[in-house]
């Protein structure tokens, strides 16, 4: 069985599995030959440009196992009969850690202090603080739960919102009433037709003055122009690991908007995620080979 894997490390963790032959395609350069023979594709972290064409060429494809939580590059183009699984859980630690770090960076004014340090300037001033904040997690799933665990100890109040309301988790329909009371709004929703442009001018207008928007989801969830307008007015602040467009081109107004802290989609790009993804790849392939039910199968309700 031919499996396309995104790295030598992934090939290594599968090396002892019987009848498995790995082809490494890390997304840099053209795809290797033999796509029509691949039964399983584990695409690289950064989606390849011609994903739909490549999947269409994979005539024997049965399983796409992503190394990301997000599946938007694959889901709309998935050939009939192919199972799609995501990497739920793999990026919880890295992304939750990034979100806490980004909140603290913005609230404690770290970017301004770094600028002052570069100038050799002792720029003493009071800053905002995370303590006592109300943190609204929009898209409360496994990353949200990991974030909540990490926030425990910062003396904040966490409010949870998700598409599926459950005990202690508000439905999305209540966002309008929850937004005005949040000091920090963390976006963790998947990129779907429901969430595209969800954070529009109206959403942002409902956020309280001085509130912080943290986007660890996808750039397309936020209307960039509307966000730039709020940042330029000085009313809101933002910490963004994802942007629309992405990569953010040089000269884009978001780069130099006041109150914004931007990182280049790195929340999950750490050795913690690499270790977890290799474990997931091995366990999923063992299940697949044994004909057992797979984990993290993406269904209609995703
Ligand atoms: C990262 O962006 C992911 O989807 O896991």
UniProtKB/TrEMBL annotation:
Key words of the record: NAD, Oxidoreductase
Pfam families in the record, alphabetically?
2-Hacid_dh_C (PF02826)
Give me the segments passing through the membrane. Answer: none
UniProt feature coiled coil, ranges: none
Q: Ranges for the D-isomer specific 2-hydroxyacid dehydrogenase NAD-binding domain? A: 101-267
Q: Write down what this protein is called.
A: 2-hydroxyacid dehydrogenase
């Amino acid at each position: 069985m031919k499996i396309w894997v995104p790295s030598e490390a992934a090939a290594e963790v599968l090396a002892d599995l019987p009848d498995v032959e790995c082809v490494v395609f890390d997304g840099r350069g053209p795809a290797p030959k033999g796509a029509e023979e691949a039964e399983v594709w584990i695409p690289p972290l950064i989606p390849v440009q011609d994903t739909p064409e490549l999947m269409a060429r994979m005539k024997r494809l049965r399983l796409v196992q992503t190394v990301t939580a997000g599946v938007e590059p694959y889901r709309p183009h998935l050939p009939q009969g192919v199972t799609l699984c995501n990497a739920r859980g793999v990026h919880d630690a890295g992304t939750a850690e990034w979100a806490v770090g980004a909140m603290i960076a913005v609230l404690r004014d770290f970017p301004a202090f770094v600028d002052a340090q570069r100038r050799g300037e002792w720029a003493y001033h009071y800053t905002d603080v995370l303590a006592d904040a109300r943190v609204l997690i929009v898209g409360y799933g496994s990353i949200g739960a990991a974030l909540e665990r990490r926030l425990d100890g910062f003396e904040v109040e966490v409010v949870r919102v998700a598409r599926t309301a459950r005990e202690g988790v508000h439905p999305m329909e209540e966002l309008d009433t929850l937004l005005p009371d949040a000091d920090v709004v963390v976006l963790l929703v998947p990129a779907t037709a429901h969430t595209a442009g969800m954070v529009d001018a109206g959403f942002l207008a409902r956020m309280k003055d001085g509130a912080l928007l943290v986007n660890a989801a996808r750039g397309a969830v936020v209307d960039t122009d509307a966000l730039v307008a709020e940042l330029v007015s000085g009313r809101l602040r933002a910490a963004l690991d994802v942007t629309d467009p992405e990569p953010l081109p040089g000269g884009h107004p978001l780069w130099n908007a006041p109150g914004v802290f931007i990182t280049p989609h790195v929340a999950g790009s750490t050795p913690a995620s690499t270790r977890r993804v290799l474990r997931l790849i091995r366990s999923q392939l063992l299940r697949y080979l044994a004909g057992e039910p797979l984990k993290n199968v993406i269904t209609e309700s995703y």
